[in-house]
Automatic annotation (TrEMBL):
PANTHER family: NEPHROCYSTIN-3 (PTHR45641:SF19), TETRATRICOPEPTIDE REPEAT PROTEIN (AFU_ORTHOLOGUE AFUA_6G03870) (PTHR45641). This is Uncharacterized protein. Pfam families: TPR_1, TPR_12. Gene3D superfamilies: Tetratricopeptide repeat domain. The keyword Repeat applies. InterPro entries: TPR-like_helical_dom_sf (IPR011990), TPR_rpt (IPR019734). Keywords: Repeat, TPR repeat. The keyword Repeat applies.
Length: 148
């Protein structure tokens, strides 16, 4: 999508216009997959601009669209983005909840690389929370997964 190209080049105004246009088109043609991706891109753009509340709003909209069409891969990305928001804002319990949901989705998909990423996110978060016993459980799961 052109919006993501503008994001990568740092042209945020053009990115915003492109993504807004994409959202409008996807709404008209009822393309939920495209709409979910566009909402996710807009959330990412807001996150880069440190507009965290707006970012969360669009990550949640992306999750709704991906759920609607049962796009599990998209959902796992959305869940990770939502978890990242809560981690940044210091709500570690909510972040942990969403990271664990992403892990469940990726296990269902048998997407090992994403599972590893989810486990690392959970381990890091549990470490920040001082929950070493629970952290060890996830470290063991990661070790087992890396042996595969």
């Amino acid at each position: 999508n052109i919006g993501t190209i503008h994001i990568k080049t740092g042209n945020y105004d053009e990115a915003f216009n492109s993504i807004e246009s994409s959202i409008s088109i996807h709404k008209k043609i009822k393309n939920h997959g495209g709409l979910g991706a566009a909402y996710n891109n807009l959330g990412y753009l807001y996150e880069l601009q440190e507009k965290t509340e707006e970012a969360l709003k669009f990550y949640l909209l992306a999750l709704e669209e991906d759920k609607y069409i049962e796009n599990s891969l998209g959902m796992s990305g959305d869940l990770n983005n939502i978890a990242g928001y809560y981690k940044k804002t210091g709500d570690f319990e909510k972040a942990l909840f969403y990271y664990k949901r992403a892990l469940e989705v990726n296990r269902g998909l048998m997407h090992i690389e994403r599972e590893k990423k989810d486990l690392k996110n959970i381990i890091d978060l549990l470490g920040s929370m001082g929950r070493s016993d629970e952290k060890e459980i996830y470290e063991k799961a990661l070790e087992e997964l890396e042996e595969v």
